[in-house]
Amino acid sequence: MAMVLFAFAFIGCRETEQQQDYPKLPSLHITMTSKELDSILADRDNKVAAFALIIDSNGDTLYEGNLIYIKTRGNTSFKEPKKPFAIKFPQKQYLFGLERSKTYILLANACDESYIRNAIGLDLARAFGIPASRYAYFSLYINDSYKGLYQLTNKVDVGGYLRITNLEKLNELANSKPCEEFEWFGYGRKKQVIQRKGVLLDRNPDDITGGYLLDNTGPIPAYTREISGFASNANDNIRIRSPKYASPQEVEYIAKRYNEMESAVLAADGINHETGLHYTHYIDVKSFARYYLLNELLLNWDGGWSSFMMYKDTDTKDSKIYAGPAWDFDRTLYNPNFQGNEIIMFNELYVNKKKGQPGVSHSGGLLYHLCKHEDFRQEVRNCYLNEISSVCHNYLSENTIDSLVTLLFHEADKDNSIYNIRKSKDYKTATSIATDFLRERIDFFDWYYSSTEEERVLVTYKMSNGEIRRFYYPIEKTIDAPQSKMLYNKAPVYELYYAGTDSIVPKGTVFHSAQVLELRKREPTKREVQIRRIRKKLTKIGVIKN
Fold first, then answer.
1. Which class for 19: exposed (0-12), middle (13-18), buried (19 or more C-beta within 10 A)?
2. What secondary structure does DSSP assign to 375-432, as a single string?
3. Per-residue model confidence (pLDDT) at position 418
4. DSSP string covering 261-273
5. How far apart are CA 420 and CA 427, in angstroms?
6. Rounded to two decimals, what is the model's pTM?
7. Which of 113, 119, 480, 541 has the CB geometry, 3.0–4.6 Å to 430, for a possible disulfide?
């Protein structure tokens, strides 16, 4: 939280010539030729040199000079009209309280009309003790054309806030030429995935046991673009983000270590039956418990199978694998640009039931399999009750989110009007969807982790599309058909049926034990649409609460 206040110190408020009373953001102005701009917008692998001018909120110049390069980046986010970027300076820069670095990431938040989901995720990650970048917001201009509201973060890499041995630097010192100039290798193939890949370095450092930064990518295209990596025995695609140019020996070392750990986690008893070692020998359990809680609390639909990063230092310092850094939270907290009118319930445990990306053959991610182990679930419970619950409530009480909303209010409206990503009527609604859902999740976690199995019932819903969803309720709680939190006129109406029958579950039914229900949806009637419109108006003027 100190970071946010520190960052805000750079983001002062001043009145413009029109005497507007909204906060003024810093601005980044980048200049290049039109042809160069077209090239980076077309291909994320293209890099071009550019000129940059950074002006703080008081109008003072923080940087004026050349960039080594600017490029587009991202996987899903690259497909959006508003592109994310990466920039690299000739020398390390200290910007807005972030870690001093040459390379920075410009997050577009193109699919988050609130612009605060990544901020909340990064804030909570650091508060949980998970490595994560600080951030600052600014207005981006390219060739004097306004490109929108952007979020500045550090690149996820070794160094800065992830302080482990920099094996990438050691590789450079051990070899007579830059590592990127060595020949690439790749061997073994399952479908589209090369099993092992990296570069043929001349020499290795004396100790190749660390540090490594790994990324369980999920989708295959993200893996195929990386220079170094391996496919695990359970078919997870693991990018080696650092060292970026890994030698055959380094790839084999970390792949073997990861596979030993993975086999232990996937075993029913948690033991790798080749080594005889329990999964707790391979991982720092507390870091994985905190990482799980972060993704589950935010209800991250990518949690555990995409942008799932892990790191390992040298064996002489710490032989265990840790979860983190934390990254990529735009698909969290009931984002309507991803979830639309789907049922998103605050009383659902989602990440621990998600086996992975539908249609992709792989293990489903370590978090899913870790949550099958009773000892890990107990670690998660203890971690939440003894540490994380108070952290969450402190975060809410500090009004950090309200400060962010106030800071971004004008610029977010301006950005949304350009890119037309809004599904909500106004910025207040967009941000309240995220913040209200976070408060509901924290209340649910407080109840869930402090209650016993005898005090709650798990009701399994079979959705119209065949998907199975599970929701937790207190004993004696009436259970009605959940509704979409979004009050769209044409949002479907959901009704509960007893499984395998055409009998509707009466409103106010109390369940004392787990049952399977079918959640069916239909188009709303004209009368129901009319009632929704009236409810919207009454909610907007404060007559009723949403």
1. exposed
2. HHHHHHHHHIIIIIHHHHHHHHHTTHHHHHHHHHHHHHHHHHHHH----SSSHHHHHH
3. 77
4. HHHHHHSTTSEET
5. 13
6. 0.89
7. 113
Q: How many CB atoms lie within 10 A of CB 284?
A: 18
What Rg, from alpha-carbon coordinates, does the chain have? 25
**For 500, what's the count of Cα atoms within 13 Å in the CB-facing half-sphere?**
2
Report the 10 Å Cβ neighbour count for 147.
20
Assess contact for 133 and 122: CB atoms under 8 A.
yes
Q: What is the pLDDT of residues 43-92, one digit of tens each?
A: 989 999 999 999 999 999 999 999 999 999 987 778 888 999 999 999 99
Percent pLDDT > 90 in the chain is 59
Amino acid at 81: P
| Lowest-confidence segment of 2-16, 172-186, 285-299 by average pLDDT | 2-16
> For residue range 428-478, what is the model confidence (pLDDT) as tens digits?
888 998 999 999 999 999 999 999 988 998 888 887 777 788 889 898 888
Residue 191 Ramachandran class (φ > 0 left, ψ -120 to 50 alpha, else beta): left
User: Crossing angle for the helix pair 427-450 and 285-297, nearest 10 degrees?
Assistant: 130
pLDDT of 506 above 90: no
Quote the tokens at residue 466.
């065949």
Q: For residues 124 and 389, give the distance between their C-alpha atoms in angstroms, rounded to a whole number.
A: 11
Q: CA 430, 358, 263 angle in degrees (round to 5)? A: 115
Looking up tokens 């075993």 gives: 267
Cα atoms in the 13 Å half-sphere on the side-chain side of 258: 32
How many percent of the chain have pLDDT more than 70?
Answer: 89
Residue 365 corresponds to which tokens in the numbers above? Answer: 């991610």
Q: Is the peptide bond before 325 cis (omega within 30 degrees of 0)?
A: yes
- CA dist 385 and 390 (Å) reads 8
**What pLDDT score does 417 carry?**
73
Q: Tokens at residue 399, please?
A: 């009004």
Helix, strand and coil content of the chain, in percent to the nearest 5, comes to 35, 25, 40
State how far the alpha carbon of 395 is from the alpha carbons of 31, 101, 179, 385, 387, in Å. Answer: 39, 28, 43, 16, 13
Q: Which region holds residue 19: left if phi is over 0, alpha if psi is between -120 and 50, else beta?
A: left
Which of 87, 158, 531, 76 has its CA nearest to residue 330?
A: 76
Residue 284 DSSP one-character state: -
**What is the Cα–Cα distance from 382 to 286, expressed in whole angstroms?**
10
Whether residue 9 is predicted with pLDDT greater than 60 in this model: the reply is no
Please tell me the distance from the alpha carbon of residue 44 to that of residue 31, in angstroms, as a whole number. Answer: 18
Query: Is omega for the bond preceding 243 within 30 degrees of 0, making it cis?
Result: yes
Tell me the two tokens of residue 509: 């039914």
Q: Is 101 exposed, middle or buried (0-12, 13-18, 19+ CB in 10 A)?
A: buried
Q: How far is CA 68 from CA 39, 97, 108, in A?
A: 16, 22, 21
> What is the DSSP annotation of 109-168?
-TT-TTS-HHHHHHHHHHHHT-----EEEEEEEETTEEEEEEEEEE-SSSBTTB-S--HH
